[in-house]
C-alpha cells in the first residue's frame, strides 16, 4: 500500500511518499527530480548498519555517486561540532550546488543534515529518509532544520525544505520500543490540534505501546493522516508566521524539560507528552477545555506508555525560567498552544505565571 502526500509550497512543492520497501528504491524516487549525481549520505552507526547497504545499492543502481558521513546517535550530539564534521565530509566529497545530502535516520540526523544542506554553498538539495516514527510523522516534514545550543533546544537553525521525504514503514521493525512510543506523542498531538478522527481511531485501538500490537492498516492510517496534517499546516504557513505555531503543542514546556535534563533523561517524544499534559491542564484552568477532554488525552498518552509527570528532581522555577529562552517568546511573553476541544487549539500569550506554576507543581514527580 503506497500513499503520496504533496506539500504545496510557493517556491518548490515536494512529495511525502509512504511506501513499503521504499528504502530499496530511493534511487528510483530521486531520479525524476533531476538532482546532481553526487550524494552525501548522512546517518548514525546503528541505522546505517541496518539500511546503509540497501540505500547505497539503490542509489548506485540509478547512477548516483555516494559518499558517507556517519555521526553519533543521540540528541546530545545535535551540536555545531557535528555540523563541522558534516561540512568536512561535504568538502572532502567535493559536493557542488547540484549535489544532494540524504538523511537516513531519526529527527536528530534529519535536523543536522538539513541544516548542513541549508548552509553548505548557501543551500544544496536535501532528501529525507526518516527511520523513526517521530521523524516520519513530524521532524522530516516541513523544512525546519537546526541544532541545539547548550542553553536551549533548536536555537540555531534554518528553514530548508527537502526535495523528497521517503517513508518506509517496514524500517520501524528495527526501532526500539521507547523510540516508537516517542513518535506516538507526535501522532497524539495531531489528533488534539487538527484531526479528531485520528484521535478517535487511536482511542479505539486496544494497545499502542508497542508496534507489534498495531495492525498494518492502523500504522498506514497513523502515518498517512499525520503526514497529511503536517503537510496541510506547512502548506498554509511555511515559516511559522501564524497557523504553523499550532504544531508546537506540547513543545513549549517539553523543550524546557529536555534542555534542563541535558537531553539524557527523557527523549523528545516523552518531553512532548509531558508538555501536552501540562498544556491540557493549563487549558482546563483557563476554562478553555473540559476536564473530560483532558482526561481523554491523558488516557491516550498513558496507553502509549508515555510519561505525564515531570522527571524527578526537576525544579519548577528552573522550568519557568527556561521557558523564557523558547524560540516562540515574543515581547518577553511565552506563547502556549492550548486545546479548546479535541481537534482544535488556540495560540495565546495570556497565560498567568501563577497558573503555569500551579500546573507544574501538580505534574511534579511524586
TrEMBL record:
NAD(+) binds at residues 107-111, 131-132, 144, 153. Residues 69-181 form the 3-dehydroquinate synthase N-terminal domain. Zn(2+) binds at residues 186, 251, 268. Residues 183-329 form the 3-dehydroquinate synthase C-terminal domain. Keywords: Amino-acid biosynthesis, Aromatic amino acid biosynthesis, Cobalt, Cytoplasm, Lyase, Metal-binding, NAD, Nucleotide-binding, Zinc. Its cofactor is Co(2+); Zn(2+); NAD(+). Its main location: cytoplasm. GO terms for molecular function: 3-dehydroquinate synthase activity; metal ion binding; nucleotide binding. InterPro entries: Dehydroquinate_synthase, DHQ_synth_AroB, DHQ_synth_fam, DHQS/DOIS_N, DHQS_C. Binds 1 divalent metal cation per subunit. Can use either Co(2+) or Zn(2+). It comes from the Bacteria. GO terms for cellular component: cytoplasm. Pfam families: DHQ_synthase, DHQS_C. It is an enzyme of class 4 (lyase). Pathway: Metabolic intermediate biosynthesis; chorismate biosynthesis; chorismate from D-erythrose 4-phosphate and phosphoenolpyruvate: step 2/7. It catalyses: 7-phospho-2-dehydro-3-deoxy-D-arabino-heptonate = 3-dehydroquinate + phosphate. GO terms for biological process: amino acid biosynthetic process; aromatic amino acid family biosynthetic process; chorismate biosynthetic process. The keyword NAD applies. It is found in: Cytoplasm. Catalyzes the conversion of 3-deoxy-D-arabino-heptulosonate 7-phosphate (DAHP) to dehydroquinate (DHQ). Belongs to the sugar phosphate cyclases superfamily. Dehydroquinate synthase family. This is 3-dehydroquinate synthase. It comes from Thermocoleostomius sinensis A174.
